[in-house]
Amino acid sequence: MLLTNASIATMAHDRPPYGLVEHGAIAIDNENIEWAGPEGDLPEEFRSLPAEDLDGKVVTPALMDCHTHLIYGGNRVREFEMRLEGATYEEIAQSGGGILSTVKATRAASESELVTRALPRVDRMIGEGAATIEIKSGYGLDLDTELKMLRAARRVGKARPVRIKTTFLGAHALPPEYEGRADDYIDFVCEIVLPAAHQDRIADAVDAFCDRIAFTAEQVGRVFAKATELGLPVKLHAEQLSDSGGTATAASFNALSADHLEYLGDAGIAAMSKTGMIAVLLPGAFYTLGATRLPPIEGLRAAGVPMAIATDCNPGSSPVASPLAILNMACTLFRMTPEEALAGMTRNAARALGIERESGTVEAGKHADLAIWNIDHPSELAYYLGLNALHRRVYKGRLY
Ligand code: DI6
Ligand code: FE
């Protein structure tokens, strides 16, 4: 297939901004991009491919949501109301609600139910141009339910035209049956649950939550040591509610990313830049929780730490299934530029998932996962809120 007359935001570099190619063509063979560039330079061999004239529409890499918890039972609308009445996220968590209330509902749900309830969220993301979505476990906190969540995530990838990357998040919260025995729970995660997920090949990476309502940097380090032993890449929910030093631990394990980062300090930024980690920023959680402390965007920028953004889609702190809304929030709330926001859901999201060699930009050799938009310039993607300009999506080389 050949796409012609396209404004291609290749996102391969930022000079010119967006790596923009006007009057561009993209040649696709099977599932990969064979060639992309100015139409006038199109090599002879591709000129006879069946062509689709895009009439100047903007083509970007398909969006990539690199941090979600979109598989879960129930919802947390009551906590939404409690927060409106003045309770904080931490207070709700400490009184046994929060993550643990979703754990209860997720344990009670069947695997098929979890899939069925996740699909509308996934469909919304696909409908806004996403082709890769990361999904975490972490609402099971026992052997059966953690594995059930990861299997459900894999099933979502078979039910829909989307690539799913799974992440094991067994160290998300302390389950009630381990109350007062956090170290024993970490032993259980390291010795039983994580090896089982790895054995079944249902975990592509390992995450943990380092904070005062979750686990210490030392406990996270034990989980990461086990992940490393099994050959799985790691990433971390870090410095979301307090500066707990998780980022430094993550850096010491060569983590792909540290995520949230509202309370990240200079030492954490330095550790990230030294080890080439990605900062995954989550404006949906910042927005939903009415947070006031911004992640240190300026410091990350100055240190050259690449920034990704994601929905963090989850029932508690970010009931958001709209990647486009997140592009907008990254700009309005975090003062990122529209170009940084789009890079955060394409090129840098791919780096946060460790798939930058095959995904995240419009370049020869990459997956032919593209989004075609009814707009004149890629900056418009972050500009609108509640207006979905998606025209078509290309997934694995096929037009949808
Ligand atoms: N931080 C988050 O934003 C999600 N997990 C985490 O560690 C939210 C989890 C939830 O509230 O259900
Ligand atoms: Fe999260």
Helices and strands, with pairings:
Elements: E1 2-9, E2 20-29, E3 32-38, E4 51-53, E5 58-61, E6 63-65, H1 77-84, H2 89-94, H3 99-108, H4 111-127, E7 130-136, H5 143-159, E8 163-171, H6 182-199, E9 205-210, H7 217-230, E10 235-238, H8 246-252, E11 257-260, H9 266-275, E12 278-281, H10 283-288, H11 297-302, E13 307-309, H12 323-332, H13 338-344, H14 347-352, E14 370-373, H15 380-383, E15 390-395, E16 398-399
Parallel strand pairs: 1-4, 1-5, 6-7, 7-8, 8-9, 9-10, 10-11, 11-12, 12-13
Antiparallel strand pairs: 1-2, 2-3, 5-14, 14-15, 15-16
Helix pairs in contact: 4-5, 5-6, 6-7, 8-9, 12-13
Describe the model:
There is one protein chain. The chain has helices at 77-84, 89-94, 99-108, 111-127, 143-159, 182-199, 217-230, 246-252, 266-275, 283-288, 297-302, 323-332, 338-344, 347-352, 380-383; strands at residues 2-9, 20-29, 32-38, 51-53, 58-61, 63-65, 130-136, 163-171, 205-210, 235-238, 257-260, 278-281, 307-309, 370-373, 390-395, 398-399. Strands 1, 2, 3, 4, 5, 14, 15 and 16 form an 8-stranded mixed beta sheet that branches. It has 15 helices and 16 strands. The longest helix is centred in the middle third of the chain and has 18 residues, at 182-199. Helix content is 36%, strand content 21%. Helix 4 crosses helix 5 (143-159), helix 6 (182-199) runs parallel beside helix 7 and helix 12 packs across helix 13 (338-344). The mean pLDDT is 97. The structure holds 3-[(4S)-2,5-dioxoimidazolidin-4-yl]propanoic acid and fe (iii) ion.
